[in-house]
Amino acid sequence: MSQPSNSPSPMGDQVAELIRKALMPGGVTVGGIGAFWLLFMESDIPKAIASLVIGTGLSYGARMLKPLHESSQRRSDYLGQMADEVTEKAIAAATGFENKYLLCQAADCESLRSEGMVQHDGIFVPLLEEVFVQLTIDGSSTLPGFNISEGNLTKTIALEKQPVWDFLAQTKRIKAYKQLAILAWGGYGKTTLLKHIAYRYGKGRAPKNAPRLIPILLALRKYRAQLTQDKPPSLPELINQFHIPDLPQAHRLQPLPPHWAQSILQQGKALVMLDGFDEIPKPQRPAVARWINQQIRQYSRSVFIVTSRPKAYRDQDTADRLSLAAPLWVKDFDRQQRQKFVESWYLCQERYSAGGRNTPKVQKDAAQAAQELLAQIEAEPELIALAKNPLLLNMIATFHRRYPGANLPKRRAELYRKICRMQLRDRPNARKLETLLTQCEAQTILQILAFAMMQRRWKRIERTQLLSGLAQTLKRQNEKVSAQAFLEQTVQISELIIRQEDEYEFAHLSFQEYLASAHIAAKPEREKQLYQYLKDDWWKPTILLYAAQINPTRLIREAMRQDANDLAYACLQETTKRVNDSLAAELQAVARQVQDVRYADLEHYLKNRQWKEADKETYRLMITTVGKEEGQWFDLDDLLNFPCEPLKAIDGLWVNYSGGKFGFSVQKQIYVECGAKLDGKYPSDTIWRIWRKFGDTVGWRVNGKWISYSDVTFNTSAPKGHLPYLEELEKMIEKMMVWEFFSSLASRLVKCEPFTRS
Questions:
Q1: Nearest of 596, 611, 587, 565 to residue 718 by alpha carbon
Q2: Phi-psi region at 736: left, alpha or beta (left = phi > 0; alpha = psi -120 to 50)
Q3: Which of 389, 465, 670, 679 has its Cα between 20 and 30 A from that of 757?
């Protein structure tokens, strides 16, 4: 691909020469302005840029009224540099470069073709904006809220459920929001969100309250070779030399003003979106983190967004650590988001099937199919859990349309199994294709490949390495298929493997994780190969998918033996979703063992009256119980549906070791005595009166003010019900939403009674 030309245009030479003639004799004076105008009128510069050149020339001229004793040479050089910048602005304005760039960036983000979604006959890929559902962002655990004015009142907006546009709208007032780290697990739509932002800005459709920014969307994995070399390119160089030439219709952007990227970055006009920090191999992350930090410091006026899986962002080397000011979490899809996506998705499918017509029948058929699917999802807790993930919801919708009337897979492992079968068997058969994929054990080959890539911690593999590995695997499996033919048909027909320039990867990392788990599950003796990875977070999704396919009793016991107690609990939770009578008895005994070891640290702290340590351990146990990571906070659904056994275990330990003074059930009783009904349906004045009374009673309010975590009394001299407090409650109190948390948890306590008491 051709590189952008850095040679000045003839018009640029004229503009530069004109400005130098006007400015360099001694700055802009009254006479200088007149001379400037005469020079301009005598030149053949297009009149379209007249006002811009004059206005900018006057602005720069005013800045050049420096003391007369300054070196004329230094001033000459400075003026020459400024003239170059003015020239580039004039050219960009005259040619509409910026508008052309925005359209090219938008075109690059137009299709929904999200990672992990494979194509099927009769199922179409919608455009992004046709089905995009705004993700909600949670910054409540780490960031202050922001205030908005409504008439004479100022209202604090909590950050537990906001669209990303609200954070962008506050970037001028809250500097931390110029550095956003958007964290989520696989399939939660991080890349799609950035594409949505770039598309809306590129098409001029950003919300009215959003700042006017120029989006630059860079997939970090594409540039890891450049960013990890000894002398990596600067951000402007990366944009000019690699990003812009790779955009659709990049030829429209020639000639490229050589300092355009640097100019918008320095002026704070750029929105730099760096996607997929977790997709950089771990050994290379420090170098990439160092490069990102340098660019953020260099261009601090612009806005930066980096996406990553939480583990990769959190577990970094301290020396070169990527640490943005505002870490945000992508929240699960709620019921309204699920409904909006399914309805929009089905309308697109029916409309495309009807040749683009949006007739009443098309709308009726789409609505009926969408409602039937949503009814199935909402009727099954297991399906609701799957549908919280946008990628899995997309897969569920695809399965539903491909197999009308069939029962939906209720577990993640089952969903992946059926999608793989659909791609490798059903799809070729439906198309009556003569394909090698149906003539060999294609999934077995892919399972071996996936497991090998997991062992090497590879998310993608270079073509020659892949062909070599496939050739060896096919030979060992006594398959007569050539490696090249197998790879080509896997990419073209199944789409479970996709090509990214000179490398290949599974359609989504979660497919690689599932196929690796299926490889282990195929032969029980292979389970021991997982034991070395029980404390390795890279392997956690694979291990959980494996636990969902087999009797995990041995695996759970081995995890406990290695003190991987949270993993043991997660495997148990994954298994109970499919428990049957024969497995129930065997799991009952191991479940008690898991509970004993899982709460051992909490019991140790409480027994030794280490109340603060016990408080922090309580939060850790609770947040991991609902499948989240430390640093996140709870949704109300998390609390209203919190598993009873863990809640009873945690509360029982607090009550027993405090002699009935501390514990959630103790707090719940005090809350009720203060007038709470535990239904959460109160007028605002009533709930805050009850909540203030409760705070006064348990010592969370002193002299009419809510205490901070540093003021919590971590000993038995505290009032009854003072603990557990949980440090995150302080943030929730500040955001005026803590009563929702406590009312939801207290309501769950009622349903989970009786509790253990001393």
A1: 611
A2: left
A3: 679
Is residue 467 pLDDT above 90, yes or no? yes
Compute the average pLDDT of residues 185-197: 92
Q: Where are the beta strands (DSSP E) in 220-277?
A: 270-275
Return d(Cα 676, Cα 741) in angstroms, integer: 13
Which residues lie closer than 8 Å to 730 by C-beta, 6 or more apart? 706, 708, 709
Contact 103, 199 (CB under 8 A): no
Task: Please give the Cα distance from 31 to 22 (Å, whole number).
Answer: 10
Q: At what angle do helices 97-107 and 72-95 cross, to 10 degrees?
A: 60
Q: Per-residue pLDDT tens for 659-717?
A: 999 999 999 999 989 988 776 565 566 778 888 899 999 999 999 888 888 899 999 99
Supply φ then ψ for residue 604, to 5 degrees.
-60, -45
Q: What is the DSSP letter of 753?
A: P
**What are the backbone dihedrals phi and psi of residue 423, each rounded to the nearest 5 degrees, phi first?**
-75, -35
Residue 353 · residue 379 · CB < 8 Å: no
Give per-residue pLDDT as tens, 504-515. Answer: 999 889 999 999
List, as one string, the DSSP characters of 429-482: HHTT---GGGTTTHHHHHHHHHHHHHHHT-S-EEHHHHHHHHHHHHHHTT----
> Is residue 701 classed as helix, strand or coil in its secondary structure?
strand
Cα–Cα distance for residue pair 343/280, rounded to 1 Å: 36
Residue 67 CB: number of other CB atoms within 10 A?
Answer: 5
Please report how the helices 540-547 and 553-561 are oriented relative to each other, as an axis angle in degrees rounded to 10. 140
Q: At what angle do helices 553-561 and 565-576 cross, to 10 degrees?
A: 160
Q: Quick check: 444 and 474 in contact, CB under 8 A?
A: no
CB atoms under 10 Å from CB of 485, counted, come to: 13
User: What is d(CA 557, CA 449) in angstroms, rounded to the nearest whole number?
Assistant: 28
108-122, 313-327, 394-408, 595-609, range with greatest mean pLDDT = 595-609
Q: How high is the pLDDT of residue 730?
A: 64
Query: Phi first, then psi: what are they for 643, rounded to 5°?
Result: -55, 135
Of the listed ranges 99-113, 245-259, 669-683, the one predicted with least confidence: 669-683
Query: Which range is most confident: 37-46, 394-403, 652-661?
Result: 652-661
- 547: Cα within 13 Å, side-chain hemisphere: 29
Find out whether 381 and 326 touch, Cβ atoms under 8 Å. Answer: no
Which uninterrupted H or E stretch holds 52? Answer: helix 50-63
Q: Largest alpha-carbon pair distance within the chain?
A: 98
